[in-house]
Specification:
The complex is a heterodimer of chains A (about 120) and B (about 900). With about 120 residues, chain A is mainly alpha-helical. Chain A contains four helices and three strands, in the order αβααββα. Chain A has helices spanning about 15-25, 35-45, 55-65, 90-115, and strands at about 30-35, 70-75, 85-90. In chain A, α1 (about 15-25) crosses α2. The longest helix of chain A is centred in the C-terminal third of the chain and has 23 residues, at about 90-115. Chain A starts with 16 loop residues before the first helix and ends in a 7-residue tail after the last helix. Chain B has about 900 residues and is an alpha+beta fold. A six-stranded mixed beta barrel of chain B has the order 3-4-9-6-8-7. In chain B, strands 14-15-20-17-19-18 form a six-stranded mixed β-barrel. Chain B has a four-stranded antiparallel beta sheet with strand order 13-21-12-22. Classes of the chains: A mainly alpha (about 120), B alpha+beta (about 900).
Chain lengths: ~120, ~900
């Protein structure tokens, strides 16, 4: 089924947590395979959060469908062994969606700060 | 097995939760990622590895199931072309309206057919409810019933059932609140005001407990009012209180003149109350304390309420049991009498049954099927122009359900517009029809009938609309969007339609043609008779005559058994009235009879003795009338043999009768004078007395449309023995202008003398012929529509055929086929279809003639030939345009398309 790419990033907001974490773990222009994305998510949260393979690849499948990430076969210099891995990179649309989700979360955070639920950092 | 491999195998099992296409794309990666992370966790600790495996396994199952659900939603989302819900969208409605504008012929023909169907269906449903099981507007009204006594030998109702009524009231358990009434016409006046006739119900007090409607003022009738000798009282209806007494607030307690009686007003009933039928006044039904013998006393009608916990069927069974006792004790009177319990005002003989449902719904379903078959053929043909649109929509991802729903909405738009038109027409027709029917019966409408369609009828029509739209669209849509939709896409460039009229649609069109052929002869016959009747009526000078029904209110102080005094009074009063009327300016003749020309006849079985001691010849339908002095002279009917009646012929026991020429031609072979005739007796052991024919008159036309073929027998009666007594007055000038003067003369003569239903015979004839003319016009319209739909169906078939055969026709033309051969090839299919339909229709007509006693074969051949010619002509005319289109196909263009 060809991917449907909505033009409006706001249409995908709010995002599933797993998708948002993957978008944050992927940096602009960088290709990562699935295991590396798992490690990146763990590292960026200092080990507090982890994403398991089932959730990760379910998210990646949807993100590819929605055009948030693009995939490719492993480059020639990948000699990790094992089955061929696919690499994923965040698209500009994915970045826009991540921005939209971040703006939404920031708005919620501002409310929490205003209500002194948490301190203002 | 290396460490971890078994664990990975287990993990692979968990991945089965994912959809197949996901597994194919990602399972290897997922397993690899799992194995790498497992190796990392193992280096940390065995327990961490174990926890990771468990969590990853559960995560895989949960994510996999979630992914399956997501895929399902996505597939449904795409199938619907983006629409979340499947249903009617405004775009579909707009497209439906656009299609109607683009194909106006189909819109008009199909819309008219559906409008007639839905209108007729709604009207039938409405009237069936009113006449089969009407709704009574009081609490518990659905349990109010009538107990009718039926004479199975005479096949008529027996109303002299006072004896039975008292028995039921005493012994029946399954029915309660038993009551009885009889209808009287009385003159009503307050003080010295001019009296006017009103319909009065002499009724038992239980009626008011039964209906449980309290009076607006005063009190209802009570059991104490029913005792013989009780002071006369009357209960007024709202319309009488308002119309005759100007809504006086002090009306209760006033004394009014009701017929020959002064009665006290005890109360006023609320607006709309007219129980038991259409009564506006109520007086107590006084019964003899000593009771009544079988078949003794006046005729009454009995009402009751089915007891709580009992059913109408149980009530029928109990009354049948009680009746058996009466049959045993009074076999002479009750041998053939059978009681039955009916819904009040309706014909329903028992609880709701399949028969009632069938009578209510089956005609509607049949008409709807026929109309949808007709219109569906046209809609199916219309889709041949939309092959490309539908195929491309498939290619773009529209699902079959989406296409079918769009076609359904288009049909629904057509059916909805037709339903609105049909219901408006049905509403008018029902109101007019009911008004004309009861006016023709000289009766007011029963209170439970409210002219105009009910809300439930509108809902019923909405249901018919949906069903009709589904019948019109779903089957053709399923066929069009079937497994060969992809093939249609390939055929788009071939220049031909992929639409086929298979055996089903061809059969539908043949059925349509056959049905039209069957309907044309009776429609033509009905129309011919209606117009013939009208022409015949116009020959009779009905505009010269005034008719008035005459009756005399009896003094209730006179015993009901003492009829001779009442009869003498009526004779005396009528003769004086006739004398005074005859002296009025413009009056040229006065007579009376039980019915005047144009009022119909009484038909009886009889036998005639054509010669002395000859075996009597049976007469199945002898038309009879009871006439007064100067009857034939008043209506200018010449006496052609024998003598007219004289006063001696009106005495009781007189045997003199007069017949008409048609009687003589058929039964006595010429001169009937001296021959004998007698009426058939229900008991062969007790024959009726012989009557002697003393005169013969020209064919009078009591029913003008009898064309001089009906045998008539006239008897001489006195005013008191004529039932009903109808005065006939020949007037030079406008008879209607005589009406006020006639009423004044009656009032001057006797307060109790009532003149009802005063109208000219011309007005009467108009009332009688109008329903027939309207019915003939309606039937002719429907048949014409059927012809149009048949021709449209044939046109559609031919158009599709030409479209499919474009290449073939072009090739044949290129190879040298002449135009005549091309036309023959095109017309052959149409001729087969039309011929099959005509043959089938004629076969059905011949079968009907074979089974019918009224139509002979000699009458039908002309109708068959003319109908076949009409149908063939219409069918061939429908083929002209497709044939012209076929002849315009250029061979080179057809070859290019190949």
């Amino acid at each position: 089924m060809p991917p449907r790419q909505p033009r409006d990033p706001e249409a995908l907001v709010p995002l599933k947590q797993s998708i948002y974490r993957v978008l944050l773990a992927l940096t602009d222009g960088e290709w990562l395979h699935g295991y590396a994305i798992m490690q990146a998510v763990s590292q960026m949260t200092d080990g507090r959060e982890a994403i398991l393979p089932g959730t990760l690849y379910a998210a990646l499948a949807r993100m590819v469908d929605d055009g948030l990430v693009e995939g490719r076969e492993a480059p020639d210099d990948d000699h990790s062994g094992g089955p061929a891995r696919r690499y994923y990179r965040r698209t500009s649309f994915g970045r826009a969606v991540a921005r939209a989700e971040s703006e939404r979360l920031r708005a919620l955070l501002d409310i929490a700060v205003a209500q002194k639920i948490i301190g203002n950092k | 097995m290396p460490p971890g491999r078994f664990t990975c195998l287990l993990y692979t099992l968990a991945l089965r939760a994912f959809p197949r296409d996901h597994r194919m794309a990602y399972s290897a990666e997922m397993t690899d990622t799992f194995a790498r992370e497992l190796a990392t966790r193992r280096r940390q600790s065995r327990w961490r590895a174990f926890a990771f495996v468990a969590a990853a396994w559960l995560d895989a199952v949960r994510a996999g199931l979630g992914e399956r659900k997501y895929q399902r939603h996505k597939r449904r989302y795409l199938r619907q072309g983006g629409a979340v819900r499947m249903g009617i969208s405004w775009l579909d409605v707009k497209l439906g309206l656009r299609m109607l504008a683009r194909f106006p012929g189909l819109a008009i023909a199909g819309g008219l057919a559906l409008a007639i169907t839905i209108g007729v269906g709604g009207g039938w449903y409405d009237l069936a409810g009113d006449f089969w099981r009407p709704t009574m507007p009081f609490p518990g009204g659905d349990r109010i019933v009538e107990i009718e006594m039926r004479d199975s030998a005479a096949n008529q109702e027996e109303r002299r059932i006072l004896h039975d009524f008292l028995t039921w009231r005493r012994d029946a358990q399954s029915v309660g609140e038993l009551g009885a009434f009889r209808t009287q016409q009385r003159n009503l006046a307050l003080g010295n005001e001019r009296p006017e006739p009103v319909t009065v119900a002499e009724i038992t007090a239980s009626a008011f407990r039964l209906t449980n409607v309290p009076p607006l003022m005063g009190r209802p009738l009570l059991e104490s009012d029913e005792r013989p000798g009780a002071p006369p009282v009357v209960l007024l209806g709202y319309s009488v209180w308002q119309g005759r007494f100007a809504g006086r607030t002090d009306i209760v307690g006033q004394i009014v003149r009701l017929g020959a009686t002064n009665a006290t007003v005890v109360g006023v009933m609320p607006e709309g109350y007219a129980f038991p039928i259409n009564h506006r006044l109520w007086t107590p039904l006084q019964l003899r304390a000593s009771g009544y013998g079988p078949l003794e006393g006046a005729g009454i009608r009995v009402f009751a309420r089915v007891a709580e916990g009992a059913t109408q069927a149980q009530a029928n069974a109990e009354l049948a049991t009680l009746n058996e006792r009466l049959v045993a004790t009074s076999p002479a009177t009750h041998q053939h009498l059978r009681p039955r319990v009916l819904a009040w005002g309706g014909e329903s003989p028992g609880d709701r049954s399949w028969l009632e449902l069938a009578i209510t719904h089956l005609p509607i379903v049949l008409v709807l099927l026929i109309a949808c078959a007709n219109v569906g053929t046209l809609l199916y043909a219309r889709t041949s122009t939309r092959d490309a649109e539908i195929a491309i929509r498939f290619a773009l991802g529209a699902g079959r359900a989406r296409i079918v729903s769009q076609l359904f909405v288009e049909a629904l738009v057509l059916a909805s517009i037709a339903a609105v038109v049909g219901l408006l027409a049905a509403n008018f027709a029902v109101k007019w029809g009911l008004s004309a029917y009861y006016s023709g019966q000289n009766d007011a409408m029963p209170f439970w009938i409210r002219p105009g369609l009910k809300f439930t009828t509108v809902l019923y029509a909405a249901g018919l609309t949906f069903i009709g739209a589904a019948l019109l669209s779903v089957l053709p849509a399923l066929k069009i969007t079937g497994a060969h939709a992809q093939a249609k896409l390939k055929n788009l460039g071939a220049g031909g339609s992929t639409l086929r009229f298979g055996w089903m649609w061809t059969s539908v069109m043949i059925f349509q043609v056959a049905l039209t052929v069957v309907c044309i002869p009776p429609a033509m016959g009905i129309a011919h008779e209606a117009f013939r009747d009208r022409q015949i009526r116009e020959r009779f000078p009905a505009e010269e005559y005034l008719a008035a029904r005459v009756a005399l209110d009896l003094d209730p102080s006179v015993s009901a058994d003492d009829d001779s005094a009442a009869a003498n009074r009526l004779d005396r009063v009528y003769r004086e009235l006739a004398r005074r009327v005859a002296q009025e300016p413009g009056v040229t003749a006065v007579t009376f009879a039980d019915r005047l020309p144009g009022m119909g006849v009484a038909v009886r079985r009889a036998e005639v003795e054509a010669a002395p001691n000859a075996a009597p010849v049976s007469i199945e339908n002898l038309w009879t009338a009871a006439v007064g002095p100067q009857f034939f002279e008043t209506f200018r009917v010449p006496l052609v043999a024998g003598r007219d009646f004289h006063d001696g012929d009106r005495a009781a026991g007189s045997v003199a009768v007069i017949v008409n020429e048609a009687f003589a031609r058929r039964f006595t072979g010429g001169n009937p004078i001296g021959k004998r005739v007698r009426f058939a007796s229900p008991d062969p052991a007790k024959p009726q007395p012989w009557l002697e024919i003393v005169g013969m008159v020209r064919d009078v036309g009591m029913t003008p449309t009898d064309l001089g073929e009906a045998p008539y027998l006239f008897r001489a009666v006195t005013p008191s023995t004529s039932s009903p007594l109808v005065m006939g007055i020949r007037v030079a000038g406008d008879p209607a202008a005589m009406i006020p003067r006639l009423r004044s003369l009656a009032l001057e003569l006797d307060f109790g003398l009532r003149l009802d239903e005063m109208r000219s015979l011309d007005d009467l004839a108009w009332r009688q012929e109008t329903p027939g003319m309207v019915a003939a016009g309606a039937i002719a319209t429907v048949v014409a529509l059927g012809l149009f739909l048949s021709s449209a169906g044939i046109f559609s078939l031919m158009s599709v055929s030409v479209s499919r055969r474009t290449r073939e026709i072009g090739l044949r033309a290129a190879l040298g086929a002449t135009q005549s051969r091309l036309i023959a090839g095109i017309f052959s299919k149409a001729l087969v279809l039309i011929g099959s339909g005509i043959a089938a229709g004629n076969a059905v007509l011949l079968l009907i003639v074979t089974l019918s006693d009224e139509v002979g074969f000699e009458d039908v051949w002309g109708a068959l030939l003319s109908t076949s010619a009409v149908m063939l002509t219409v069918g061939l005319l429908a083929c002209i345009e497709p044939a012209r289109r076929a002849l315009r196909i250029h061979p080179t263009d057809a070859l290019k398309e190949a």
